[in-house]
Amino acid sequence: MSMISRIFGFCLRYPLVGISTLILLALLFVSLFAPFLWTVDPLQISPATRLRPPSLEHWFGTDALGRDIYSRVVYGTRTSLFIGFVVTLVSYAFGIAIGFLSAFNRFADTVLMRIIDGVMSIPSVLLAISLTALAEPGIWIVILAISIIEIPRVTRLVRGMSLALRDALFIEAAYASGTSTWRTLFRHILPNISAPMFVQASQICAQAMLIEATLSFIGAGVPPSNPTWGNIIAEGRSLYQIAPYMILFAAMALAITVLAMNLLADGLRDALDPKLNRGG
Amino acid sequence: MLIRTNRRGVEAILRYSIQRLLAAIPVVAIVALIIFSLLFLAPGDPAALLAGDSATPEMIEELRVRLGLDQSYFVQLRIWVLSIFRGDFGVSIFSGTPVLELVYDRIEATAALSVVTTVFAVLFGVSLGMIAAWRAGGFVDRAVLVLSAVFFSFPSFVIAYILILLFAMQMQLLPVQGYVSFQDDFWGFWVKIILPCITLGLPFLALLARITRTTVIEVKREDFVRTAVAKGLPTNQILMPHVMKNAAIPIVTMVGLGVSHLISGVVVVETVFAIPGIGRLVVEAILQRDYPVIQCVTLLSSFVYIVVNMVVDISYSFFDPRIKR
Amino acid sequence: MNALLPLIEVKNLKVTFHGRTGPVLAVDDLSFQVSPGETLAIVGESGCGKSATAMSLLRLIQPPIGRSEGGSILFGGKDLLQLEYEEMRAVRGREIAMIFQEPMSSLNPVLTIGRQLTETVRVHADASQETSRLRAIELLHLVGLPDPESQLRKYPYELSGGMRQRVMIAMALINKPSLLIADEPTTALDVTIQAQVLDLLSKLQEETGTSILLITHDLGVVAEIAKRVIVMYAGRKVEEATTIELFDNPQHPYTRGLMAAGPRLGSAMADVKKARLREISGTVPIMNGELVGCPFAERCENVLDQCRLAFPQDTQVTETHCVACFNPNGAT
């Protein structure tokens, strides 16, 4: 009970965190219970009801193949959130490993940082396109492509903060008392850099969803049969002058989700570490 | 502005510039290596994939040889690097034209779009950030904070469709899409480029406004700004050059980093507004699985990004005399 | 100017800062005046409001940081606190100039010395580039910088601390102001350089006839250069006297404590008093408007019951010496 009231109090003190968490929880709910939210099969084609504007029957209208846009947008939530979360997990797994390695091994650092600089010099969407163009279209190649873009950002953060902490007194003390390097890393350094990592994680999740939508939009993303927000918008692309609602709802869903993620990052930055706020 | 630089200063700037230039060479090499290696990182058989579903085994083999995929990694790398030095960036699978020619035909539209957008974003982003910082907590400041969060979160195609809906379809002020070279129709060029530039520029502008605001607020707290006020300088002279020359480095750094967003945005914006540029070239290449085109554009745009950031690095020495050594 | 009329007259000045927990009174009911050509020092610990006083004369304390709330600052027949922004700007750097404590951070690191000096001339006078450059060279020569012409092309980081402070002084005096405010001008400098800068200030004052308002925590500096002294404690003026009177016959218990803490009176007695003064916790009280009575009461050895009820009125000791204390002589 006290836990709940503490979380509630925290959200009241930092309304940005509270509101964006609420939005994200709602989205999670929508994606988990998509079949029960008055949806129909998002893939079902019905030529008789093509390009219908929003109505009581089809809340968001129907597309060029007569598919129900409301159901497609609701199911699209699943793909977007899934890609966002998996990319964040994957880039953190690799980012933390590479970041630690280069913070504690000078030779690895020289090599890895050159590669990281190189990857960061390639415009992100083009890098992703170069990868997805080489494989069968699918969700996992998209996740791989976006993760490769995001790993360097995590690595930079982890490396930078670990280097700063490495020389801090309590780390010295941990070493001196005979703690192993791995123990030092996970028991002493990781907890101390978790605040900025949470902030960055929500930014990366937002960024991943944006890139996924962009890739789908230009035809380099998840296969068109899969209803993602980017795909829905891409399909409405040629018809937006006569049927703008085809784009409108998916665009709104995408914008709100990414905005909530970014606001969560801003709010967390203020809440977790007031010192961070001064810098940016 | 009165800046008298003595001979020693010019030499120092030159030396610093050459230093930066040399530092960029290994980055270029590594980027090229990474882009080349992607061909080997991809799961499955790239030749079969690029040849398409209807390809016969012979056609796949032929493509494999044409792309050099039958050779070992290092042999291919050598051939690839040597041909790049000869100016040969590969041949389009789809049309058989050298990729560099395709890029050359499309470069004008993209260059025009990028330059106009950058000028627009820098001009408005930096001024908005300055106004927001000067009246921190005021109306402009709050508007800048909210709008920068919004524009940074909206994908560029969403911004594009909102703008088209408002200005092209509702008010009918501007054309929905299309492009015309400024050499052919000067006014037509501007009328048609407004919406694409705003679309492409808003996230960039938001980024710049935010970093300018943060930096100017920090610089404003410095003692020398108090000195400038105590000397009786008017506000515009305090801002320029006293505050802005000190705030310049984080801002131009962000301009350099923003070019990456800009290049990614070009791909989307050219698609939405039907602008025949490099971005459209890439999107067409995706549909045709024309990998040499994608590879070449990725490589060239990375070079552009590296060169821009090298210029940004060199510009530091102009803003801060302590940097050239 | 008539020597009998004060150059600047501060009446009942009140300055508040907007702190995290509410307004903090930095200066409370402060009145003083500076005559043409004289040097007045304001002494006190850090946080006593002396810098806030200096800054409010140029109206450098602006919302949202804080503001000058009450009173008036009469200068040349005008109340500085009532001036429009542009009128105030004409006063800044031309009639009243200021030197700050940190010569490193007070000069713009990315602009040349020349640029920073000449713009000060050009912003107040319709001077050509060449005239202002000559004026800058003249001033750098006056403050004793070697080879002034080549200094103009230098950046602050290429000069030593003492040289930078000389540049600051040159910049302050370049428009021949009638009042120079020096806020801890020597605190950030080495001891030997300190003496040089103080000598320079008094020499320049003789030559130019500028009045100086010196803000310092160092009674040694006061003894060297000031003609009159104001002692401030927690935003209040507690004692005002000529320098000679103050050193010969300090009245307020706080002034006596300050002197004991200084290195000048190195007796054993002084050491004891210094130790006792520092021992008292809480040092200067935060003036959030709740405190009535004398702010020094908690640290004072002569404290009486009435000290905690009201702030004492000024008592004249001589014509030029007054003190705000109920019990300066330690009666019980």
Characterization of this structure:
The complex is a heterotrimer of chains A (280), B (325) and C (332). Chain A has 280 residues and is mainly alpha-helical. Chain A contains 12 helices and no strands. Chain A starts with a helix and ends with a helix. The relative contact order of chain A is 0.14. The C terminus of chain A is likely disordered. Chain B has a domain of 209 residues: Orthogonal Bundle (MetI-like fold), CATH 1.10.3720.10. Chain B is built from 12 helices and no strands. The two termini of chain B are 23 Å apart. Chain C has a domain of 182 residues: Rossmann fold. Chain C is built from 12 helices and 12 strands. Chain C is globular, with a radius of gyration of 21 Å. Classes of the chains: A mainly alpha (280), B mainly alpha (325), C alpha/beta (332). Chains A and B meet through helix 4, helix 5, helix 9 and helix 11 of A and helix 1, helix 2, helix 6, helix 7 and helix 8 of B.
Question: Which percent band covers the strand fraction of chain A?
Answer: under 5%
Task: Give the strand tally of chain C.
Answer: 12
Q: How far apart are the termini of chain C?
A: 48 Å
Portion of residues in beta strands of chain C equals 15-25%
Put the structure in a nutshell.
The complex is a heterotrimer of chains A (280), B (325) and C (332). Chain B is mainly α and 325 residues long.
Features:
heterotrimer; B: 325 residues; mainly alpha; MetI-like fold; 12 helices; 77% helix; C: 332 residues; alpha/beta; four-stranded antiparallel sheet; globular
Question: How do the strands and helices of this protein lay out in sequence?
Answer:
The complex is a heterotrimer of chains A (about 280), B (about 325) and C (about 325).
Chain A: H1 2-13, H2 15-32, H3 69-104, H4 106-120, H5 124-132, H6 139-166, H7 169-176, H8 181-192, H9 194-217, H10 229-236, H11 245-272, H12 274-279
Helix pairs in contact in A: 1-2, 2-3, 2-11, 3-4, 3-6, 3-9, 3-11, 4-6, 5-6, 6-9, 7-8, 9-10, 9-11, 10-11
Chain B: H1 7-41, H2 46-51, H3 57-66, H4 73-85, H5 99-134, H6 139-153, H7 156-170, H8 186-220, H9 223-230, H10 235-272, H11 278-288, H12 291-319
Helix pairs in contact in B: 1-12, 5-6, 5-8, 5-10, 5-12, 6-8, 7-8, 7-10, 8-10, 9-10, 10-11, 10-12, 11-12
Chain C: E1 8-19, E2 22-34, E3 39-43, H1 50-57, E4 66-75, E5 78-79, H2 85-91, E6 96-99, H3 103-106, H4 113-124, H5 129-142, H6 148-151, H7 161-173, E7 179-183, H8 191-208, E8 211-216, H9 219-225, E9 228-233, E10 236-242, H10 243-248, H11 253-261, H12 268-279, E11 315-318, E12 321-323
